[in-house]
Amino acid sequence: MYRGKDRVGIRLAPETVKRVKNRLREMTSRSKAEKISDRIKSINAYLGGWIGYYALAETPSVFQEIEGWLRRRLRMCVWKQWKRVRTRYRELRALGLPERVVHIMANARKGYWRMSRQLNNALNNAYWQSQGLKSLTERYHRIRQAW
C-alpha cells in the first residue's frame, strides 16, 4: 500500500516482483530445450493468472517493466537457438534487416543477454504479438476497465 496526496493505493511489493521474475527466469531458462511457441504458451498461462490476481495494484509501470524484461529474456532464448553464424544471418535477413547490420550482428561474439538488446529492432513487440505473446500491460488495462 502507499499513501498519495488525496488517497491510499495498492502497489506490488518488491518481493512479489522478485518472485514473478524468478518464475519467468525458470520458464525462459537457456538450458531448456523448448520451442519458443511452447514457452510462450506456458508464459501466457502463468501471466494470465498472475495478472488476474495482482490487477488491483495501481502500478502500471511495474507491469510495463516486467513485460519489457520478459521480451528481452525471450530474445535471449531465440539468439541462443540461432547458435551458428549461418543460422543467425539467415534468420536476421528473413526479418528484413539491412545486410550490413545483419553481418555485424551475426558475427558478434557478445553473450546472449548482451545481444538481446541489439535484437530489439528485429524482434520487436509486433513480432512477439505475431508469435502469440500476450501483452501484460494490455491485459492489466483491460481487467482494470472491466471493474
Automatic annotation (TrEMBL):
It comes from the Bacteria. Residues 17-94 form the Group II intron maturase-specific domain. The lineage of its organism: Bacteria, Bacillati, Bacillota, Clostridia, Eubacteriales. Pfam families: GIIM. This is Group II intron, maturase-specific domain. InterPro entries: Mat_intron_G2.
